[in-house]
Structure formats: C-alpha cells, structure tokens
Amino acid sequence: MKKLLPTSTAGSLPKPSWLAEPEKLWSPWKLAGDELAAAKRDALLLTLKEQEVAGIDIISDGEQTRQHFVTTFIEHLDGVDFEKRETVRIRDRYDASVPTVIGEVARSKPVFVEAAKFLRQHTQQPIKWALPGPMTMIDTLYDAHYQSREKLAWEFAKILNQEAKELEAAGVDIIQFDEPAFNVFFDDVNDWGIATLERAIEGLKCETAVHICYGYGIKANTDWKKTLGSEWRQYEEFFPKLQQSTIDLISLECHNSHVPMDLLELIRGKKVMVGAIDVATNVIETPEEVAATLRKAMQFVDAENLYPCTNCGMAPLSREVANAKLRALSAGAAIVRNEL
Ligand SMILES: [Zn+2]
C-alpha cells in the first residue's frame, strides 16, 4: 500500500560550505571546472543522505547543482544575453538587474538531466525535480525580442516541456514548476499562465506539480507580506482555474502564513503539498505544530491527497536549522499518519 502523507521539501536546501557560501541566495561557487562538477555530485549525495536520515519520503536535489532556481535554467538557453543587463521590477516588488532576451529562445542541450540521472542512481525513493515556471521565468528577464510577456511564456513552455520529458525519462517521479509569480499577476495567470504551464507538462506520464508561494524569507518578501493585510487571499484569484487544470499537485505555503486554510476548498480533488514548515525563521517547528497544520488542511484535503512539505525553499537557512526543520516535518507527519 502507498504510504500516506509522504513528506517532501518545496525545493532548495542549504549547500555545504565547501561548495558555495552558505545562507545566501545567488551564492557564488567556490570551485570551478571539473572540481565544481565533482563537488556538485558530492553535494547531491550529501543532500540525499540528509533527507533520507530526516525521514523525507520524496527526495529532491535540493538545488545543489544550481545557483538559483530561475537564473540557472535560463543560463543554459540560447537567445538570452547575460552581459546585457537591464533593471526591472521583479514580481512587482523589488528592482533587480536581469539579463536580456535578444533573440529566439531555445534549449540546445539538456540542463539538469545528467544530475537527475545521478540522483536516480543513488536512491530507491521517489524523486521530485523542480523547474522554473514560464511566468516566473519571464518575470526575471528583460525582453528586447518578443516584446510580449505572453509570447515569451509560450516559448519557455515549449522549452520546459523538452527538459521535463527528458527528466521523466531519467526516472524523475514528480516534475514541479515553481511559479511564485502566480501570486502577483492574477489576470495573466488566468489568461495564459495556467495554459502555458499545461503546455510545459504536455505528454508527461509522471506526476506534475506547481509550487506557488510567498517567497523565500528575504527582506523584500517579508516587507511585501506586511502590506498584504491580515488575510492573504491571493490564491483565491486563480484556484478555480487551477482546480480545472491538468496539474496533479499544488504546493502551497500554509504554516505561519495568513493564508486562510479554507481557500483549499477551491482546489478540492487536487493533491496538495501543504507547507507546514516556515522558511522565514530559524525557529524550529515542533512536531505537534506540524501536525496541527496538517490536521487543519485535512478539513479540505483528503488524506490520500495530502503531501506534508515546507512552505518554500530553505537555501538561505543554515544546514543545522534546515535539517532540524526536516526532522520536525517527518515527526509531525508521523503523528497524523498514526491517527489515520
Ligand atoms: Zn517558494
């Protein structure tokens, strides 16, 4: 029988200090060339082991082979000039210097497929691999070629589909698309955001997920959250359409969040990765706190559809804190599993 309440993480995990400077986003690599390639494989083994020891059921790569969840994927594509930079407003929230789309975008070679094969060779557990979603990709670029957010999103969806099919062939069980931009551009999400996501998963037989969150615990995000009021109802804007979509799993921020849990009613029937770990604090959740969040979610998510998870990635945290949080997640899920 399939294990109930399988645990997983939203995506990134801390990197070891010999690979990149810890507790930092966009942290530069400490090695180069063949040494870096070997170090990334070692880090994959380490994160795999740490997840298994913490009792995580669905293993992720912890983003050990990438500097950033969006940028690294784009770096491997044609048509984007990383030297030519423009300042744009990301997710309507903060300014950043980003690369420029200067011609047709294309994927001339696989990006993460080798790393996925390597992870697959080393564990019997199901594995989940995250890719950026089309809308979040275009939100991290200046487009001087297509001059249309929607057009560029469709192009990226095609490219993501190529990568996703090869990840599936490499033995990945769940392919996840990270779409924090879904919480900001509601009209676009409904007009073409979900449609481009469905294009990205076209023809896949493995399970597919979308991760929608309120971001890492960085200052720009925590400041933004303060402006959202006491109830965060952003999910409400596009859940009805997402419920109708072909995406299997939806990964959401639910713990220490002002998201009213009853919004989950709008996606009833979907599998939900319920974020029960706050990534914006070093305070370690108790297993009982995790269990309480999961029980609340179970009012709206059937047990067989509930996947205990973290709110978002944990790259900016220390390894000690992240590992303790993973153990709390497993222990909390075990409490509720025993009650079922
Ligand atoms: Zn996230």
Automatic annotation (TrEMBL):
Write out the GO biological process terms: methionine biosynthetic process; methylation
In the record, what terms sit under GO molecular function? 5-methyltetrahydropteroyltriglutamate-homocysteine S-methyltransferase activity; zinc ion binding
InterPro entries hit by this protein: Met_Synth_C/arc, Met_Synthase_cat, UROD/MetE-like_sf
* Protein EC: 2.1.1.14
Which CDD domains does its entry note?
CIMS_C_terminal_like
Determine if Isomerase is one of this entry's keywords. Answer: no
Where would I find the Cobalamin-independent methionine synthase MetE C-terminal/archaeal domain in this sequence? Answer: 5-330
Kindly give the Pfam families that the UniProt entry links to this protein: Meth_synt_2 (PF01717)
Q: Which cofactor does it need?
A: Zn(2+)
Please provide the record's keywords in A-Z order. Metal-binding, Methyltransferase, Transferase, Zinc
Please give the Gene3D superfamilies that the UniProt record associates with this protein.
3.20.20.210
Query: Is Methyltransferase a UniProt keyword of this protein?
Result: yes
User: Which NCBIfam families does the entry link to?
Assistant: PRK09121.1
Identification of the protein by name: 5-methyltetrahydropteroyltriglutamate--homocysteine methyltransferase
Record organism: Oligella urethralis DNF00040
